[in-house]
């Protein structure tokens, strides 16, 4: 086996998700994952701290992405308009092309209470990252926190619907529709 | 010691919070809590499953309260108007008169990662309870889920501000103000 493994990370993710779904998260070991992917445990630990992080490692890119989107938005845009302007970038960087992974992850996370708690922690960290990005833009604390909750609601509901529909409608379209619905709910 | 202990639950809560803050959550034992409260461990376990539940047991009343508020609201009210009409009842039943407990709990929960994850799980369960209450009212799934996230954002930010201000402004007033702010953010 050569030292350089193309797409090692993606192969480990796919192998892990297959085994998690087939045998359960708790019963799957790192050596089983690496054997299934045709890679070494050493390669695994170059990419992930432990088997749980296979499910969540990609979320670590979220704060930098949000900071970039929010800081690049024209100063004239309101907080929610900043989010609206960033929908295409957010969908492309975090979700599109990863439907199978996200759908499998959703199934695995639902099956294990510890993973579900971990996901809630990751979401709370995402909301904190959004809040910080708006604070850096000069928005006050309460508005920043409310905008973070508002946008997380739109993203969470939209991604859930997108996965549930198996990608039938483009995610940016669902996000814009959900944003308009939440605006209508707020105004009613 | 007589078998009947008036206010046993509240005395156990106060004793536990004092010890959690003084010695840390992990280092505090149930016998220490009961000794501090002048009660038996048997009494403790009549009220709480374990020491962690001293912090969260009151949240268990939330689903029934939300179901009551939402089902009693006039049919003509929109989802957010239902929440608005229930602000006084929600504040009175869940928060008012418990500022010291909530402030102490906030400090303890922040100090322990496991407790913080537990609180996120409780909040997710609250959002689910709100979603179910709106579904029972005949609201569609997406609107119910978005309304739940919207109202949880208002309640979470409001209670945080109320605790931070040490109750200087009445909680229902803060909730109405925060609701108006989130409506303005959504419309902007």
Helicity range of the residues of chain A?
A: over 70%
What is the largest interface, and how many residues per chain? A-B, 32 and 32 residues
Q: Quote the beta fraction of chain A.
A: under 5%
- Helices and strands of chain A: which structural class? mainly alpha
Number of strands of chain A: 0
Q: Using the CA coordinates, give the radius of gyration of chain A.
A: 18 Å
Write the element-wise H/E pattern of chain A from the N-terminal end onward. HHHHHHHHHHH
Largest sheet of chain A: none
| Regions with little confidence, pLDDT below 50 for 5+ residues of chain A | none
Quaternary structure classification:
homodimer
Separation of the first and last Cα atoms of chain A: 62 Å
How many helices of chain A in DSSP terms?
11
Topology (elements, then pairings):
2 copies of one chain form a homodimer.
Chain A: H1 8-23, H2 30-37, H3 41-47, H4 53-56, H5 62-72, H6 79-85, H7 87-95, H8 99-110, H9 113-136, H10 141-164, H11 171-187
Helix pairs in contact in A: 1-2, 1-8, 5-7, 5-9, 7-11, 9-10, 10-11
């Amino acid at each position: 086996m050569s030292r350089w493994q193309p797409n090692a990370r993606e192969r480990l993710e796919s192998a892990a998700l297959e085994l998690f779904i087939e045998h359960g998260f708790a019963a799957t070991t790192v050596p089983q994952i690496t054997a299934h992917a045709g890679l070494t445990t050493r390669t695994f630990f170059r990419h992930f701290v432990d088997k749980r992080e296979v499910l969540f490692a990609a979320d670590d890119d979220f704060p930098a992405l949000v900071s970039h989107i929010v800081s690049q938005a024209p100063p004239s845009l309101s907080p929610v308009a900043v989010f609206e302007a960033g929908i295409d970038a957010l969908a492309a960087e975090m979700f599109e092309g990863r439907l199978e992974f996200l759908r499998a992850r959703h199934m695995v996370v639902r099956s294990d209470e510890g993973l579900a708690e971990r996901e809630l922690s990751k979401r709370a960290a995402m909301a904190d990252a959004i809040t910080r990005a708006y604070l850096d833009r000069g928005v006050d604390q309460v508005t920043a926190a409310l905008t973070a909750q508002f946008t997380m609601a739109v993203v969470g509901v939209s991604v859930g619907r997108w996965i549930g529909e198996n990608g039938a409608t483009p995610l940016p379209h669902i996000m814009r529709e959900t944003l308009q619905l939440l605006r209508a709910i707020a105004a009613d």
